[in-house]
Write a structure and sequence with these properties.
Layout (H helix, E strand, L loop, with lengths): L11 H22 L4 H10 L5 E2 H8 L3 H13 L3 E6 L2 E9 L1 H22 L4 H18 L10
Antiparallel strand pairs: 1-3, 2-3
Length: 153
Amino acid sequence: MSNSAGFVDDYLAYLLARASHLISSEFHAVVEANGLSLMEWRVMASLSGKDSLSINELASIVLAKQPTVTKLVGRMQDAGWVTRCDAAHDKRQSLVSLTAAGRRKVQPLLKQAKAHEAQVVSALGAEQAHQLKLMLESLIAAHTHAGENVVES
């Protein structure tokens, strides 16, 4: 076996995907143990601290297609975790909000997610962790185009 670096060993997209996969998969078991699917967790975490988000905004944030999120939100509404209402400015647009039950369901997970994040970045130190987030936010902003950043998960 060769010790030389292969293409992916220094390829940014691969490194980002690998880091995301390794870090996220550590937390997936916690989410599922709390009775949520990963997509439900993503939606609820995305809505936390927000008054509401449109289905399209949620789709972009949770990295899924709009029809997938629409169906998921319907199931979550049936479970009592979210509410959906028409936007005042456009009746064709649905706004989604967490219910009190949804907030109670997701709150412990938000704390566990923050603790997990702190553990993940502890080796970096606070300043490097902050700089990493700023760099990733800049990279995301530089590559975000309407409709082009939505993928099916």
